[in-house]
Amino acid sequence: MQESRLRILEDLHMLYVRQIALSLEGTDIQKKIDHEIRMREGACKLLAACTQREQALEVTKSLLVCNSRILAYMAELQRMKEAQVMQRMARRPSDAGPTDDRLPCQGRVCISDLRIPLMWKDTEYFKNKGDLHRCAVFCLLQMGTEIYDTEMVLVDRTLTDICFESTVLFTEAGPDFELKVELYSAGLEEDSALGSAPKKLASRLSSSLGRSSGKRVRAALEGSVPGSPLSNGGSSPLLLPAPSVAGPRYQLLASTTLHLADVQDAFRTHDLVITGHEESSFWLPLYGSVCCRLAAQPACMVHQMMCGFLQVQQGEQPDWLRLFCVLRGPHLLCFHRPQDVEAQVEPALTIAISKETRIRATERDPKNRLQSMLVTNRYGGEEVTHTLLAENRAETQRWMEAFWQHFYDMSQWKHCCDEVMKVEAPSPRRPTAQLPKQGSLYHQTALPGPVGLPSACEGLLLQDNAVSAEIRALLSSYYSDSY
Fold first, then answer.
1. Which of 104, 134, 258, 394 has the maximum number of C-beta atoms within 10 A of its C-beta?
2. Which residues, 6+ apart, have CB-to-CB distance to 67 below 8 Å?
3. Which distant-in-sequence residues (6+ apart) come within 8 Å of 448 by Cβ?
4. How far is CA 228 from CA 8, 245, 247, in A?
5. Which letter does DSSP use for residue 446 in this model?
């Protein structure tokens, strides 16, 4: 009854989310929410069908990511609804605030080579004493509505660092970005996600222990013995865990938030805020820091912000050169022909455009209403000035606006505009490694099967393979849509 109520409330909540998304026309939030809801429903069904721990861990991880994305989209919907209300309440254009505020360009932010050091006790790491404590961990990376997850890593006391090979790229970052890095962990000692033992194992136990004892063990494992802790309360054998069985529980173990000041074109260490405690089943002895490479690439550093023909004069030289100029990054690149840009020909002239560059417009020919632009840079103790002349006054205004916007972008992105940082492409997904054998006799003993025709319970193995194939298809679609 309680489960039915929760399911009804959950369905109503998802319906409410869809209705809010439908109320915002002309946005892609509705499609994104519908996609995540479908992924979430599929993950819930797959979780109920999982009989292997690897399956349950992967599906539960995907379910957590789906929930995080839905919450992020809901927050974005709330922000958009508030913006619509404020726009309708504004009686005059001035009530909505200034409309000519300059906005900085967007950029790409890449985080890679995540390393989280561990601090095991001497008796655990060097002397290999105590119970073997193992966890499955992964990182959730969020910037606004962009949410990605790393691969799952299995951790025990044989590891000194948690290493994630995933490269995550955020393509719509602003200079005021907040990159949340959250480390989730699930203890592997608990087998609640698996429900009951597989029926194939029960069949082998039955044939190994003898007819009388084996029959009682097999009945208990299949859930047909009343009062058994593994019983599902019905008379039919339990082939797969019931949907009400909870899966593995990922808990937030540590987190940190990275900003523009943390960007550096090299490996850097950042402090972690640890939220778990030592008594938790998902606990790992973290050192308290995370090492990663965080690079940023503003659009103004790699894209053409302005281009066109200009008359260029250097210093007091009488000669003028008509060159095709491209404003990109910390330079104004001047070519003889527009085709030289695509052919990546060395520019005929390069003029530095940095935070220290001074640009001003002056009247050159008041009769023809032409304005020249003076670009001044200091090289050592000497000032060098280049004079730029556009074809008409309107073109001069376009160039001056492009320069001011470029200066504003560089002032907002700060040290990220000193030089172009390398941004790596997202790494392809690798299949999660199989869980290693546990050290107990239960997991290491090979139980011989009965000689003869395969029993009916062999169908469970085929069901497991089918479930695994469905999980792989689900996750493959999930990750291809994410990246």
1. 258
2. 40
3. 204, 207, 208
4. 30, 16, 21
5. P
